[in-house]
Amino acid sequence: xxxILMKGNEAIGAAAIKAGCKYFFGYPIxxxxxxxxxxxxxxxxxxxxFLQAESEVAAINMxxxxxxxxxxxxxxxxxxxxxxxxxxxxxxxGAELPCVIVNIVRGGPGLGGIQPAQSDYxxxxxxxxxxxxxxxxxxxxxxxxxxxxxxxxxxxxxxYRNPVMLVGDGMIGQMMEPVEFREIKTxxxxxxxxxxxxxxxxxxxxxxxxxxxxxxxxxEEHNHKLQKKYDDMKANEVRYESVGxxxxxxxxxxxxxxxxxxxxxxxxxxxxxxxxxxxxxxSLWPFPMAAFDAIPETCKAIVSVEMSMGQMIxxxxxxxxxxxxxxxxxxxGGMIPTPDGIVAxxxxxxxxxx
Amino acid sequence: MGSNISKxxxxxxIIGHYGSxxxxxxxxxxxxxxxxxxxxxxxxxxxxxxxxxxxxxxDMLEAxxxxxxxxxxxxxxxxxxxxxxxxxLGPLQQPxxxxxxxxxxDSVGARVLARYHPNLNEGDYDMFCVINANREQTQDVQGxxxxxKAIEATAGLKVTGLINNTHMLRETTIxxxxxxxxxxxEVSKILEIPVKYISTLTSVAAQxxxxxAGEIFPIRMVMREDWM
Lengths: 354, 228
Prior knowledge:
Mean pLDDT of chain B: 94
CATH topology of the largest domain in chain A: Rossmann fold
Shape of chain A: globular
Structural class of chain A: alpha/beta
Distance between the termini of chain A: 49 Å
Largest interface: A-B, 29 and 23 residues
Radius of gyration of chain B: 16 Å
Strand content of chain B: 15-25%
Low-confidence stretches of chain B: none
Strand order of the largest sheet of chain B: 3-2-4-1-5-6-7-8
Order of helices and strands of chain A: EHEHEHEHEHEHEHEHEEHEEEHEH
Radius of gyration of chain A: 21 Å
CATH class of the largest domain in chain A: Alpha Beta
CATH class of chain B: Alpha Beta
Oligomer: heterodimer
Largest sheet of chain B: 8 strands, parallel
Number of strands of chain B: 8
CATH architecture of chain B: 3-Layer(aba) Sandwich
Number of domains of chain A: 2
Strand content of chain A: 15-25%
């Protein structure tokens, strides 16, 4: 299929339908409204169901129900809406159900604003819901990557029986870019959902979808099982891009659209004789810890560049393990970092060097 | 470059399917018209999109001498409220003022126009439909016609000209523009309205033949930052 020009939120909807999504439950919130708009128009044409719930809480619990029945299901929202969904998300993780959740992040805290931000890093990688659970969190930097990751998100959700979250700052939802819907060969071997509540037809015992354990020993056992799954994700689901890190004077770490601004800054720095490398996490959880092992000892600093007050910086410090100084540059509240601002910060850190 | 823009009607209404490039065209048109020594009011009537609205570039446009009118609380980007400044009635009623109405996408965005129906007299306005043949819903004649029909019905106004703005951002090729041109010319024939402009990046415009229907209107990307 030839490339067409799409808005991020439309492309999310189109990619989800292509990935086999049959149910969408959601509640409007800017800047992701074109996702439910697209799904309401296109999902019924493709044999699916769109339903606008009365709230984000209702929507995520509808996702719980549909997923328990074995359906491919998605919801989308933006930051404060995702906060509302957290109870449902931990229930879904606890009950080991697959689903895809899209978060088009806007400025916070609270109602915040409608302009782009990345200040949900902690919310999406640390949970927001209770208990020892993890989401596979994927953060594309452009629409083509978003479209390609959607298929993997649905497949990985089914494979691990775990929610997968796709995170884009508001810009990913609102910007237009050429996209191509290509066939993605799945790397997962997916088995039939024998656990789903599809009706026993008198042939088998009832399947029960639940996250309540009356016996603490059983709940601990359940937690060990979940942990094993998260260890598998850490081993198999790390995704990142690394550019010019091996001989870098300084390494910038950025994800999503911020990584694109950083690339422009890196090009400018190169002209001025400063070798800056880029590590771009694509999976925010699991975080690409191993990517940092390629950084030379001589690297002067690692800088986390974020559209927040500094949230990913903690993971960078864990990955650095004291080997390099870790610094931060960010804008927040819907303000977008500029290449010039990043260049100035790098020069400040590099001090008199060159 | 843009030689006929001063001959268009005093009020130019820019409509079309959302994501077609209405705002890029409107902003470039306003800048070109202003350069011809006209006083221009650019009215951002987009109550549909939260991002990439002409008000984002108000500082630059105002520095170029253009009056920018948008929300009732000026150009605030963080307000998700469909409100429009009453000041828009000013330029609509001033016979000497050159006005560009940058309307939100689709018929939903065009709903705003119905409010100004009493101020938009036939013969005093042009309504230009911006077409991008690379958008999912406007790749064929039927798609374009259904958008025009829906917008005309909502606004109570007739489209008077077509703008071929077929593009793929920085990847735009001559082939993109020519495919959009064939589509626009076909729509032009059916509706009996002219293709007024072929709006495309300066680098692509330089490669186009002059004999095409419509004036070649070279633009630069104003709304899209360099890193995008």
